What does this fold into?
Amino acid sequence: MHMLFGKEHVQRYQETDGAEGHEWNGTTTLLLTTTGRRSGKKYTTPLIYQRHGDSFLVVASKGGDPRHPEWYLNLQADPEVEVQVKDEKFRARAHTALPEEKPEMWRMMTRVWPDYDTYQTKTDREIPVVVLERLS
It folds into this structure.
């Protein structure tokens, strides 16, 4: 199977309820859908995640780019998001990890994707960890 990226990754994940796309490059991904802060359109992004209690963690790394990824800017404007993990879809509220919770969460994420540490060395921007809390 070839490596999935971008729109194709999202499409295969949605079509197969995560049978294709959840396992990715030795780790796992979820789909995060945000609302465009200017367009109002829905945008879906595949992201590496880890469970943290009842919540899910994702990292707004953009490969160490000096700018935040669009999805992160969108959820700052509207923290109500949609999440898909395998065949499970739910609404969630997103928030940036607080300074006191981030170190533990960052370690969790770098255990599954060590490149996050490399990305952080490439940018002066503090790369956020985002907590996705399920809404009932």
In short: The two ends are 36 Å apart (CA to CA). The helical segments are 6-15, 70-77, 102-112, 115-122.
